[in-house]
Structure formats: structure tokens, C-alpha cells
Design goal:
Blueprint: E1 4-7, H1 15-26, E2 31-34, E3 39-44, H2 48-57, E4 67-69, E5 80-81, H3 84-93, E6 98-104, E7 118-122, H4 127-136, E8 140-144, E9 146-147, E10 151-152, H5 156-162, E11 169-172, E12 182-185, E13 192-195
Parallel strand pairs: 1-11, 2-11, 4-7, 6-12
Antiparallel strand pairs: 2-3, 3-8, 4-8, 5-6, 6-7, 9-10, 12-13
Helix pairs in contact: 1-4
Length: about 210
């Protein structure tokens, strides 16, 4: 069955679409949705089949990291071990276009763990993403929509053409700027920038 495409408003996302997307996620489906940077592939983090589906989509990409989309920092300790210095920085810059690499807790499914036992955390400044997490009632497991080995799809129509049988729903907010999040590694004694993206680098140090 071909992918379902629904136009969503970034500032005032339609409640029926958010509810529809959350239902698809809870049933093991894959939803493409807009973040504060580029489009994300979202799934239920506790659904093993959904995780395997996303990993098949990402097989040709070097950007294989899956991140937890959280609404805020309140429950971050469930999923990640956050050093004091990192928490102070995160409080200052979230919500925003950053992905934080942190040591994972035992609650993180083993299928998602890297060799370093780390996890990616995202708290995007996106009303759509925030509404979707709130409706689902738990973090969304998310990754970028890959375009080959080193790029990202930012046009929902192109995403639909390329992944029409792999994705269940696209929340279409139009073409987005092709600039992903800044990735910051907080798993060590001080922050390390792994990828410079949309986020302000200086804000991570001052």
C-alpha cells in the first residue's frame, strides 16, 4: 500500500493528524514528520519490528544513529546518564536543533545500543514533534530520512516517491532546509562536537 500523505501546519498542527500519527506509531508503523531541522523517521521505541524496518531503510546511509525525541528534560534520566556539566548546557539550549550523545541507561532496548553504550537525545523546537510525543505518551525513536550515503531528503514528495512502500504516513509541512542538527557528545568529561549543523556552537560553551 502506498504511503499516506497529510499536510500539517507547523504552528498549529491539526489534532486529528497528530492523533492519527500516534496511532500508526503505536501499531508499529513509520511516520515521517517535521522537526526544527529536517524531516525525521519516527517509530515506537519499544516495537522491535518497527526498529528493524527503519534500520533496513538506513542500510545505505552512514548516518545510522537513532535518537530519542523527548518533550523536555524532565524524564531524561530514564534513558540517559547526564553529567552535571552537560545538564547545565542542555537546560540553556533546549528545545533546539541539537542531538546529544549520552551514556544509556538499562531501560534503553539493547537493539538500539552502540558499542559505546550511548544513546542520542533530541528535544526539538518543533510544535509538531512535541505534540506527537505528548500524544504517544512516550519518546519517539527517530532518525533522519536518508538520501543515499551522505545526504537527507527534505522534500515530502521526494520522500513519498523513494519510500512509498516503506513508510506509512508523511506529515507534509513543505520543503525544509537541508541542515540537520548539531551533534554533541556528552559521554566524556567535556563536550565534543561530532557534527556542526543548525545549532549555535558557541551556546554550548558559554
Amino acid at each position: 500500500m502506498a504511503v499516506e500523505i497529510q499536510h500539517v501546519y507547523l504552528d498549529h498542527p491539526q489534532k486529528r493528524l497528530i492523533k492519527r500519527a500516534a496511532e500508526i506509531l503505536s501499531q508499529g508503523g513509520i511516520v515521517v514528520y517535521p522537526t526544527d531541522t529536517i524531516y525525521g523517521l519516527g517509530i515506537d521505541l519499544f516495537n522491535k519490528k518497527a526498529i528493524e524496518r527503519v534500520l533496513r531503510i538506513k542500510k545505505e546511509s552512514k548516518h545510522k544513529m537513532l535518537s530519542f525525541i523527548l518533550p523536555d528534560l524532565k524524564n531524561i534520566a530514564e534513558w540517559a546518564l547526564v553529567p552535571d556539566y552537560a545538564y547545565k548546557i542542555m537546560r540553556r539550549v533546549v528545545p533546539g536543533p541539537y542531538t546529544f550523545i549520552l551514556k544509556a541507561t538499562k531501560k534503553v532496548p539493547k537493539l538500539l545500543l552502540s558499542n559505546q553504550k550511548t544513546v542520542g537525545i533530541r528535544i526539538p523546537d518543533s510544535i509538531v514533534a512535541q505534540a506527537l510525543v505528548q500524544e504517544l505518551g512516550r519518546p519517539i525513536l527517530s532518525t533522519s530520512v536518508p538520501q543515499g550515503s551522505d545526504g537527507f531528503y527534505t522534500d515530502p514528495q521526494e520522500i513519498a516517491r523513494c519510500y512509498q512502500h516503506e513508510i506509512d504516513l508523511i506529515l507534509d509541512a513543505g520543503v525544509m532546509v537541508n541542515k540537520p542538527s548539531t551533534i554533541v557528545d556528552f559521554s566524556g568529561p567535556e563536550p565534543e562536537i561530532l557534527r556542526e549543523g543548525s545549532g549555535d556552537i558557541e551556546a554550548l560553551y558559554y
